[in-house]
Amino acid sequence: MKIEDLNSTQLDVLKEIGNIGSGHAATALSQLLLDKIEMTVPNVKILPLEEVSNYLGGAEELVVGIYMKVFGDAPGKLMYIFKNGDAQKLVNMVADSNLLEMEHYQDYEQSVLEEISNIMTGAYLNALTKLTNLTMLSSVPAYSCDMAGAIINSALLDLGMLGEYALLIETRFSTTTQQLDGDFFLIPDPGALEVILEALGVE
Amino acid sequence: MFINAIQIGMADYKVAKTPEKLATIGLGSCVAICVYDFENKTGGLAHVMLPDSTIAKEVKNPAKFADTAVPMLLDEMGKLGSLRRNIHIKIAGGAHMFSFKTRENVLNIGARNVEIIERICKQEGINIIAKDVGGNCGRSVLFDLATGIVYVKTINQGVAEI
Q1: pLDDT at residue B26 greater than cutoff 80
Q2: Is the Cβ pair A154, B140 closer than 8 Å?
Q3: To probe the interface with B, which of A140, A159, A161, A165 has the most B CB atoms within 10 Å?
Q4: Which of A134, A144, B99, B146 is most deeply buried (CB count within 10 A of its CB)?
Q5: What is the DSSP string of A137-196?
Q6: Which value does ipTM take for this structure?
């Protein structure tokens, strides 16, 4: 199945998957932070590979990215992107204190964000597994704080990359009390789309 | 410093003459290939994404792949009147942005990109005289055609010249 050939019904189904998955992920984050989490309706975007980083903001902007692979019946990738300042706010919220002044702050940040991603991803993929009866498991998270373009493109590309397009199921979430935004993406491998749609009985 | 330069996107390339500057930003595993004719002061920059075009059914865009971008840049330089013996190459990029703590580091595209570029340059008989590659940081590149100097900017280490 070619990503660019998906019809509107199929895209709606993928959007709904994002909706269910990120609903659970947001609940998990909310319980962790003891704060209300707001979440946008997921956006399904089909973009040429070379345009993804522009779509997500300036290629040189400093961001924190957490990257995970999805294994199982419907493989793909998962990605969390935070603006640098927002990543720090999130870490401080979880720790309930100001860690920025601590020695080795970067290590705390990496560890906390990886764990948050683990928890949210667990909730997201669990919801999808229940819905589709497909096995979907995530890898350990990998952290990077660098230029947005470098992070996004490196996560997107792999050696077997045949297609010209990437399909992103994007959800933005924010906390109301701290003015904090995050971006969350599920990027199914092209082969996984067929498996997901079939599992849900969509032609 | 990147403002007055010709911007080159992912999987894209440009050739130009002095006093132009060529720039590309946000390289992760991608590599900037900077070809320079030190006699004519002309040059080209390609931002390649993937190492090997043979996996693709058809190559619509030679600038996307390391193995097709090098010959294409050399062709374009030839059209601008460059002689092979006056051409050299500098490369930057090819980082490994995400390193997993487990053993699963199999697909390091950045290193593959660099490896293929080096192989093709050897085949073509063109010298790679400088490189700033590998590691785990993103890079932006500015290529000054007046001097042939390539400026490589990273978040943590500022600007280096190669």
Answers
A1: yes
A2: no
A3: A159
A4: A144
A5: EE---EEEEEEHHHHHHHHH--TT---SEEEEEEEEEEETTTTEEEEEEEEE-HHHHHHH
A6: 0.83
Active-site residue numbers of B?
30
> Is the pLDDT score of B107 beyond 70?
no
Between A148 and A177, residue with greater pLDDT = A148
Q: Using DSSP bridges, classify how beta strands B42-48 and B13-17 pair: parallel, antiparallel or unpaired.
A: antiparallel
CB B142 within 8 A of CB B31: no
B60/A120: higher pLDDT: A120
Question: Taking CA atoms, what residue in B is nearest to A148?
Answer: B26
CATH class of B6-161: alpha beta
pLDDT at B106: 53
Q: What percent of chain A has pLDDT over 90?
A: 13
- The model's pLDDT over A136-167, given as tens digits with 9 standing for 90+, comes to 999 889 999 999 888 888 888 765 566 678 88
Q: Hey, is the C-beta of B94 within 8 angstroms of any chain A C-beta?
A: no
Of the candidates A54, A62, A146, the beta carbon closest to that of B97 is on A146
Domain region containing A61: 3-199
What one-letter code names the amino acid at B149?
Answer: I
Per-domain boundaries in chain B: 6-161
Whether B137 and chain A come into contact, CB under 8 Å, resolves to yes
Q: What is the tally of structural domains in chain A?
A: 1
CATH number at residue A119: 3.40.1550.10
Tokens of A84: 């640098």
